[in-house]
């Protein structure tokens, strides 16, 4: 397997955690998002969206972090990233999707670049935009965790799919100086996850291309 990633990409961060939890190795090839390497024609051949991550498995090019993680779960089911019950699996997926669909897409680098270069939004306003959508999402996630989470991680006492999405988003929040005091369950889950080697090794600052 070959993983095309970028140290600061939260989507790639999720996949790195999944690979680590499952004890899988992939050759890492780094795509520098801020330099626009994801838009180069040769990379567009691998991923027409011009995004990271891309996972190469044989002749197949897998894209979108959730699809990649679900693929890894299906091909390498142990340790499991999803609980056994259908309702519990739906709850865990919903938590992951709250980040993947509702927070991350409107805060990612291409959106921020459009705000800056096309709409001429200055940096303080862009940072305020970023923080607003994290805070909006975290309020809902904190409530979900308080009501139905329990255990050491997002669901129970085993790290799983929702944790793979939450931890990178907390890293983004801290980078943007989001006040985390209103989110005690999120903070507790994040700290529990980062105590694990699989999560620690996946941190942006621990990647070879970290700046």
Tell me briefly what this model is.
With 211 residues, this protein is α+β, with helices and mostly antiparallel strands. The protein folds into 2 domains: 77 residues, Glutaredoxin; 114 residues, Up-down Bundle (Glutathione S-transferase Yfyf (Class Pi), Chain A, domain 2).
Which helices and strands, and how do they pair?
Elements: E1 2-5, H1 10-21, E2 27-30, H2 41-46, E3 54-57, E4 60-63, H3 65-75, H4 86-103, H5 109-117, H6 123-149, H7 161-175, H8 184-194, H9 197-202
Parallel strand pairs: 1-2
Antiparallel strand pairs: 1-3, 3-4
Provide an overview of this structure.
- The chain is of the alpha+beta class and 211 residues long.
- It has 2 domains: 2-78, Glutaredoxin (3-Layer(aba) Sandwich), CATH 3.40.30; 86-199, Up-down Bundle (Glutathione S-transferase Yfyf (Class Pi), Chain A, domain 2).
- 55% of the residues lie in helices and 8% in strands.
- Strands 2-1-3-4 form a 4-stranded mixed sheet, covered by helices on one side.
- Strand 1 (2-5), helix 1 and strand 2 form a beta-alpha-beta unit.
- Helix 1 runs parallel beside helix 3 (65-75), helix 4 (86-103) packs antiparallel against helix 6 (123-149) and helix 4 (86-103) runs parallel beside helix 7.
- The longest helix is centred in the middle third of the chain and has 27 residues, at 123-149.
- The radius of gyration is 17 Å and the shape is globular.
């Amino acid at each position: 397997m070959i993983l095309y990633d970028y140290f600061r990409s939260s989507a790639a961060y999720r996949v790195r955690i999944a690979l680590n939890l499952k004890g899988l190795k992939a050759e890492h090839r780094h795509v520098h998002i801020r330099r626009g390497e994801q838009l180069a024609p040769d990379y567009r051949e691998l991923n027409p969206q011009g995004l990271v991550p891309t996972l190469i498995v044989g002749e197949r090019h897998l894209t979108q972090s959730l699809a990649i993680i679900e693929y890894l779960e299906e091909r390498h089911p142990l340790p499991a990233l999803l609980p056994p019950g259908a309702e519990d699996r739906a709850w865990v997926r919903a938590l992951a999707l709250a980040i993947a669909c509702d927070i991350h897409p409107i805060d990612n680098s291409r959106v921020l670049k459009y705000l800056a270069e096309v709409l001429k939004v200055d940096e303080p306003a862009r940072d305020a935009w970023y923080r607003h959508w994290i805070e909006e999402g975290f309020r809902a996630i904190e409530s979900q965790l308080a009501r139905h989470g329990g255990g050491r991680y997002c669901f129970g006492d085993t790290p799983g799919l929702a944790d793979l999405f939450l931890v990178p988003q907390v890293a983004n929040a801290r980078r943007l100086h989001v006040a985390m005091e209103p989110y005690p369950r999120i903070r507790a889950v994040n700290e529990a996850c980062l105590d694990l080697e699989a999560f620690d090794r996946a941190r942006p600052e621990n990647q070879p291309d970290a700046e």
